[in-house]
Structure formats: C-alpha cells, structure tokens
C-alpha cells in the first residue's frame, strides 16, 4: 500500500494521488477507517463490510466465576509487566509525549495497562477487526502510516497470526523513528489458537533474528516450561476426549505448574518456554548469521 495522504468524502476516504497514480478508496465503518489493501490481505472486503469489521474469531466475554477461572488459567505474566516497565523507561528519555503504536490492539494485552495509563504516552492502536480500543482497521503487512512517525511499537501475541512475519517487522522498522523502540512478545511452544488464523512459532534465537535490524536491549523467555505444561495438559485432554471443556478442566488441574517457573533458570526456560520476547532499538545495522549463533542463550 502506498503511503499517500487521505481526504474524507462522505463515508469514504480517498487517497490523494501522486505522480498520476490512481486514487484508492477506503471505507469508514462505525467511525473507524478501514485502511486495508484487500488484494494482499487474508481479509475479505465483502465480509468486512457486511459484518462492520467484526472479528472472524469468536471472542468470549468473561464475567463472574468464568472471569475468575480465566484469570487463573491465563494470569498476567510478571515478565510482561517488567518488560513494559523497561519500555516506559526507554520512552522516558524523550521530550514530550511519546507516540506508541500497538499492533493487534483490539483488546488491551496482559500487562499493557500501565502503558495505556501513562500520561506521557499517546497510544495509537489498530487491529484487523473493530473494537473501541482501536483508531483504525488495518493489516500489519502494510501499516498505513508514514515513515518514522512512532517512538515505539508494541506487538504482543500477534506475529504468530500473520502470514509474513518478516514483512510485518519490516513495516515496524519503517514506521519507527531512528532509534525508536520495539517490544515484541510471541509464542514459542504454545499449541494452535485462533484456528485458521495461526501460522508461526519462534525460538528465542529465531525471534531475535527476525528483529535483526534492531539493536538488542533485552530478550528471553516470557512464560516458562511450567506454563507450557499447563497448556499441554489442556490440549492433550481436549484431543483425547474431543472436548474443549475437558481440556479446560485439565488445564485448571495443572494450574500449579506455572508457579514452578520462578525456580527454573533462564537458560533452561528459554529452550522450553511458552513464549519469547524482544526489546530492541531501531538501527541501520543488520546482525549477521554468525552473530545469531553466538546469541543463543539456552542450556544446550
């Protein structure tokens, strides 16, 4: 998608052509622009229009006892809170409000609330479906924002759901200002979730190499083998009895396993982690294949 200025005409946005380019038209649905190139996206234009950009994946609303159980099964990770605090420390060195892009911000991710509450942070958020938490609908493979606009980008539990992670990370690099910060949190050992919209997993080293055009601030495991054991119990029993409910009961029975992660050294956690994270700074340098071998942080 070319990054051209837009003008509003009725319930449409039209690109302002440059050098004789044809104008591109975008819908505004419920007050939110849908800035998607449907020719290159998994989204279908007719479906987006007829559903008012609703999520293709069913997303449950939890309350009462179900909310309590959900909290037990998917607690906020201490690691995420620490990583977001580290990101806020990086942003605190900038003057004025920091512009932060949240990719996949249809819901506020675990451990992310302090970033949203920070008065020195201006959050911009988008997803491939519409919710009150986003400003526009877009596909992360073609972010409709000019180069170098953001001070930081956060992409939490999203890269497993995109077809071309390297293309998305290239877009992140493009929309960040020089020296801008990225925080990414991505599954490693987790089973498939969100069905047909789940594509990829990363080891810690593979995740680091994905962000090879960024200088490393911190990286490692985020959710250890104990948390992954709980996930495995869910999917084993779910598969054996062909029942999601049975799986959730098994997951609840293994909720204690995640508590043991605090006793596992990081070098062992990295090799069997539920997820991995990367905190880095945009640079013009690209790490080499030899450097990624030297980067390995595991116990093997």
Automatic annotation (TrEMBL):
<dbReference type="GO" id="GO:0008168">
    <property type="term" value="F:methyltransferase activity"/>
</dbReference>
<dbReference type="InterPro" id="IPR013216">
    <property type="entry name" value="Methyltransf_11"/>
</dbReference>
<dbReference type="InterPro" id="IPR029063">
    <property type="entry name" value="SAM-dependent_MTases_sf"/>
</dbReference>
<protein>
    <submittedName>
        <fullName>Methyltransferase domain-containing protein</fullName>
    </submittedName>
</protein>
<keyword id="KW-0808">Transferase</keyword>
<dbReference type="GO" id="GO:0032259">
    <property type="term" value="P:methylation"/>
</dbReference>
<feature type="domain" description="Methyltransferase type 11">
    <location>
        <begin position="135"/>
        <end position="183"/>
    </location>
</feature>
<dbReference type="Pfam" id="PF08241">
    <property type="entry name" value="Methyltransf_11"/>
</dbReference>
<keyword id="KW-0489">Methyltransferase</keyword>
């Amino acid at each position: 998608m070319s990054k051209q200025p837009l003008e509003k005409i009725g319930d449409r946005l039209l690109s302002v052509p440059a050098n004789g380019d044809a104008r591109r038209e975008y819908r505004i649905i419920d007050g939110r622009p849908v800035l998607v190139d449907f020719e290159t996206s998994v989204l279908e234009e007719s479906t987006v229009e007829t559903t008012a950009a609703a999520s293709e994946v069913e997303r449950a609303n939890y309350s009462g006892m179900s909310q309590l159980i959900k909290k037990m099964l998917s607690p906020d990770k201490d690691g995420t809170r620490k990583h977001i605090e580290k990101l806020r420390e990086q942003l605190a060195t900038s003057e004025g409000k920091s512009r932060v892009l949240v990719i996949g911000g249809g819901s506020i991710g675990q451990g992310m609330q302090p970033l949203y509450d920070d008065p020195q942070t201006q959050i911009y958020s988008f997803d491939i479906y519409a919710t009150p938490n986003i400003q526009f609908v877009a596909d992360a493979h073609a972010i409709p924002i000019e180069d170098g606009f953001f001070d930081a980008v956060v992409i939490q539990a999203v890269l497993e759901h995109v077809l071309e992670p390297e293309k998305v990370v290239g877009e992140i690099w493009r929309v960040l200002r020089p020296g801008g910060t990225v925080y990414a949190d991505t599954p490693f050992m987790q089973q498939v979730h969100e069905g047909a919209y789940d594509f990829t997993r990363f080891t810690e080293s593979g995740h680091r190499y994905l962000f090879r055009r960024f200088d490393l601030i911190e990286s490692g495991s985020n959710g250890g083998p104990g948390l992954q054991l709980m996930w495995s119990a869910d999917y084993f029993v779910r598969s054996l009895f062909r029942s999601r409910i049975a799986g959730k009961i098994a997951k609840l029975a293994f909720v204690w396993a995640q508590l043991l992660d605090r006793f596992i050294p990081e070098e062992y956690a990295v090799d069997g982690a539920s997820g991995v994270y990367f905190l880095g700074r945009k640079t013009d340098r690209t790490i080499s294949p030899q450097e990624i071998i030297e980067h390995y942080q595991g116990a093997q």
